[in-house]
Amino acid sequence: MSWQTLLLADIQTGLSAQELTGVQTYALQSGQPDPTPAVIAAAMNEVRGYIAASSTIVLGAEQTIPDKLIDTAVDLAVWKLVTRFPGKLMATDQRRQRYTDAIARLKDVAANKFRIEVPTVVSTELTSGVLLPQVSRSTILQRVREEENGV
Length: 151
Description:
single chain, mainly alpha, elongated, 49% helix
């Protein structure tokens, strides 16, 4: 498992081609850009924010999230995109539930109740108010093993 960037192709797993085209073009003012890239970035930042709230999890390289949380980020992004429309045109109860479940999963990540993989490249961003040092993957794995063995 690795850490990766959330892509438009990932979002296409949560929206049909017609829906994606609709959210990319609906209610845009003249010259206003497609909202999808900003929504993808916001979803990734939200996922990384919950990871950073954990006192034991280190963040991977900037603009990446764990593979295990790609579907979670997709659910966040899809909800943000479909709620741009008036009424419940695309904001179905099923999508609302997926969004709610995604937030619950992220809260579990922050509370260390949902384990994610150790990144191969560690970020220098602040996590729980502490600047993370650049450390090697082997050092991180050693610390994880020590923690698991109660050392």
